Amino acid sequence: MPTPVIKSLRIGEYEVLTYLVACPRTGQAVIIDPAGEARRLAQWARDYEIKYILNTHGHPDHTLANAELKELIQAPVAMHQDDDDFFASEEGKAVSTQELHLPPPPRADVRLSHGQALQVGDLRLEVIHTPGHTPGSVCFLVEGNLFTGDTLFVGAVGRTDLGGASLQTLLDSIERRLLPLPDKTIIHPGHDYGDTPASTLGREREENPFITDFILDA
User: Fold this and answer.
1) Architecture of the 5-216 domain
2) Which residues contact 20 (CB under 8 A, 6 or more apart)?
3) Distances from the Cα of 161 to the Cαs of 42, 129, 211, in angstroms?
4) Ramachandran angles phi, psi of 16, nearest 5°
5) CA nearest 19: which of 35, 3, 38?
6) Number of helices and strands (H, E) in the chain?
7) What is the pLDDT of residues 38-97, one digit of tens each?
8) Is the pLDDT of residue 9 over 80?
9) How many CA atoms lie within 13 A of 48 on its CB side?
10) How many whole angstroms separate alpha carbon 109 and alpha carbon 136?
11) Rounded to an integer, what distance in angstroms lies between the CA atom of residue 144 and that of residue 70?
12) In what order do the strands lie in the sheet with 77-80?
């Protein structure tokens, strides 16, 4: 299986990690969570053919550059259908404008669902629905690399004090959808909140207190 090209940039006041994941043979790629600075991202990705702009979830700190970047690089925006609907609702708009003080994301061009696969050159990206941080949070699995957004951090999990969130749902998602993956799976989170920017599922299984204390010891 091909080894993807993976690059990251820290973007915006919330210091979101925006990722570029590319097929080394074809140059086809995706951008995950364009957090702002659309022109900078377009320049960053200029050597690749961007097939999709992917959102791990609809919080505006992760989606702020969706519309402008879409116009600059002519790639469709993809988001899980539950977040596409939630952030178009009055409750979702309030989460964006009142709780995070940023505009809500525009509607997606591609509505994702659990288990869906996206082909990007020789790479297969699997969509894993992991609700809890938001109703439509997802992780993207690409050749042993898991892009977790705000579902799972190094040593922590995403916030569940915002509208549409649930700690128990988040823990259930991690237990049912992520922990069955191999320990060597590399975790690429949406923020660098831990002692390293990335981790492995095996390390998180042993050291992340939300997994050790709330899932494995439950």
Assistant:
1) 4-Layer Sandwich (3.60)
2) 5, 6, 7, 8, 29, 30, 31, 32, 44, 45, 48
3) 33, 20, 19
4) -75, 140
5) 35
6) 8, 14
7) 999 999 999 999 999 999 999 999 999 999 999 999 999 999 999 999 999 999 999 999
8) yes
9) 27
10) 15
11) 27
12) 5-11, 16-22, 28-32, 49-54, 77-80, 110-112
The residues, ordered by sequence, that sit 6+ positions from 52 with a Cβ below 8 Å of its Cβ are 30, 31, 75, 76, 77, 78, 110, 118, 120
Q: What is the pTM of this model?
A: 0.98
The residue written with tokens 């050159």 in the block is 121
pLDDT digits (tens, 9 = 90+) for 125-161: 999 999 999 999 999 999 999 999 999 999 999 999 9
| CA gap 198, 190 in Å, rounded | 10
